Structures are given as structure tokens and as C-alpha cells.
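Thread: quick sanity check before group meeting

JM: Hey all, I'm pulling together slides for Thursday and realized we never actually wrote out the predicted structure for the chain we discussed last week. Dropping the sequence here so it's in one place. If anyone has concerns about the input, flag it before I start.
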Amino acid sequence: MQKGIGRLVIVRHGESEWNKKNLFTGWRDVRLTAQGEIEAREAGRLIAREGFSFDIAFTSLLGRAIKTLWLILEEMDLMWLPVENHWRLNERHYGKLQGDDKIEAVKRFGAEQVNIWRRSYATPPPPVDLDSPDYPKADRRYANIPEADIPRGESLKDVLIRVLPYWEKHVIPKLAAGENVLITAHGNSLRALMKHLENISDQEIVNVNLPTGVPRAYRLNAQFKADEARFLGDASAIEKKMDAVKEQTGKA
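JM (edit): ok, ran it. Output follows.
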């Protein structure tokens, strides 16, 4: 008897040190805070309580997403699970904004311009120079990526363009075989995937905020689009976390 399409759960990594400091992180590799580790463990317990189990997990090449996955799997007693890491699941590359304080960026460039860089669908931030430490080619993790594929600064549209081939080639076949899939990644790589799965318009995706450490569960149809999508956990607490993401450039 053929299995149905597997279930999918996505989780943005727990709070990172630079989330806490309100800095543009992008491809900078920063650690989880103690609170971020708590969020990851709570996500694992919540997913388990909801009755989910998994056959394979996918994550990025950035430590905050990898550590989040480790902690979730530990809480679920699934540390033996096969895991695939790939740069196409990395966070959006924030170009020359990487490492900048978000409030200081507003003071320097103006709230309207920073909001366009942060939240618009198709406008990337200023690109990093080829000799910048933020140009990924210098990092051994990315040494084998073709030059044409290496980002220097990305819009959400750019992120979707790089995420979709990985989704189609690596993740869909697992789901099609009836395997249940867990993806832990980043605010923008997962927002890009949400846009695709949930048919969110270019205009609507601007207002979609994905909180740290909150699982989102999917039931997919034969086209591998969402028939059902829901956050797991307390709705009011999740709403507060979403509002916190939205207000990052307006913190005192």
C-alpha cells in the first residue's frame, strides 16, 4: 500500500545573540542565547506532544539553525535521525547591512529605506564587496559554490529563487515517499518557503513575521502546497513574538 504525502514542520531557530542585540545577522555565524536554547527545547517538546515524529531533517550551514535542530531532536529522542545541511537554507544575505545595529541603520539611512531593505519582497540591500569578510567565498563551507550562485546581498525574492531548487530536488522526494520532514532554518529562508507553500502574494509576504522557536506544521496536497498550515503553541504568546519581530527597527 502506497504511503500518503509526509507531514512537514518548519521551525525558525531560537533567539540568537544578534537577535537579542538587534543586529542584522544574515550569513554571520552567531550562537543561540540561553533563551534561544530554551525556545528550541520547548519547540521539541511541543512538537512531540502534538504527536509528530520525523524520518529526516534539513537545516542550513549556520550554527544557530543547526543547534536548534540538535536541541529539538534531543527533546524528541530522535538524535539518530538523518540530517542534511545545505547553504540554500541559509538566512538571507544582508549585504553591507550585516553586523549593523538596526536602530543605527534607521538613523543613518532613514526608516523608509531600511524598511524597504528589510521587508520589501524584491529590493536587496547594498551588496558586499568581493574583498569583504562578508563575501561568503572566503569561508570554506562555501568554497565549492559556483561564483554565480554566491550571494552578496539578497532580497526575499532572491532567497526564494535559491531555496526552491533545493526544496524541489531534495525535500519533495522525501515527502512524496511518505516521509515526515522537519526543517529548521531562518526567518527569511522559511518566509520564502512559506510564500511558496501558502501562495502568499508579493504584497502580503511583507507583513508575514516568523517568530523564533515556534513550529509551523503543514498538511500538503498532491501539488506539495499547503492544504493546512498552523503554528503549534499558545496563539496569544505567538502573536506577541510576531509583534516583537515587526518592531525590531523601532526599539528604544
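AS: nice. Helices lie at 17-21, 34-49, 63-75, 102-109, 111-119, 156-176, 187-198, 235-246. The CA atoms of residues 18 and 25 lie 6 Å apart.
JM: adding both to the slides.
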